[in-house]
Amino acid sequence: MNTKPKVQLRGVYKIFGPRHTQMMTHVRAGLGKDALLADHAHVLGLQDINVDMQAGEITVVMGLSGSGKSTLIRHLNRLIDPTAGEILVDGEDVTKLSERDLRKLRQQKMAMVFQKFALLPHRTVLQNAATALAVQGADGTTQDREARKWLDRVGLGGYEHRFPSQLSGGMQQRVGIARALTAGTDIMLMDEAFSALDPLIRTDMQDLLLELQVELKKTIVFITHDLDEALKLADHLVILKDGAVVQQGEPQGILLNPADPYIEDFVSDINRARVLRVRSVMQPLAEASFAGEVEADDTLERLIALSGGDTTCTYRVMSEGQPIGLLDMKDLVKALVPRLSRSADQPDPV
Fold first, then answer.
1. CATH 3.90.1280.20 region(s) of the chain?
2. Range 276-335: architecture per CATH
3. Stated pTM of the model
4. In terms of C-beta density within 10 A (0-12 exposed, 13-18 middle, 19 or more buried), how is residue 100 classed?
């Protein structure tokens, strides 16, 4: 089994400004984002980014406005060139690719879904969905067949001959997803893809993406500023602040073990019962009297409903029909309480 990451970022920096290369000396010496702007009129976009993105997983990069998340995703297909560092796709450093090889990478390995849909208004839904194949030089029959297949898969069968202006925002974004799937690439880049949608439509699109991912196992890089969305979608979560990675890892682990006060504040208002899974709170299997069985990926919210709020219950945790642990409702209650944020000058509890 190949465990090598599909995409790797190694020591990636991005400085915006006319003397960006010279500014690396100051940044490596410890000059921060605010000081770099104030003293040298340059903007530190990314600072020493080191992230592995595994094949077949959804890596979500999130942060507040100005954190560098959209800058990061645009480095993967070199819409932006880094000031320093390596960006490896299948072990090949894309920063060293020729223009010809870069075009090949964009056409054959990566597809992008944009926040503002980016559909061509004078082309039909079918023609928009087939755009990537047209650029690749596929014949008309192949374009038509593949575009129809993916439009039907995202729920737009029968809309092939409409124009984008005749569709709702959610339907337009479904065309964008169909276009990316029609390209047949291993990697999908999604930059704030659902943020322009109404909440209910946004939830539907998230569910559609997860449904497709079970089937297709794409390597997806998803950018968002919404923590609920990030926790719902991510296999691997990367949180940025001022162009640097503050914490990364499995989302459940980040929620239960925030690395610093910034992350603690970030996750403090999350509905933990709706987000946390049984597997994140369970204990090793032991002899006990069980009130029932629960699945490892059930939410704590579902277990609370199952127990009727009885904190004396213990449940056996199952995965693929096999017992893998136990969950004491008292541990569940503890998990629902976020850690209190501490300022830097407060001592750790003894």
1. 276-335
2. Alpha-Beta Complex (3.90)
3. 0.87
4. exposed
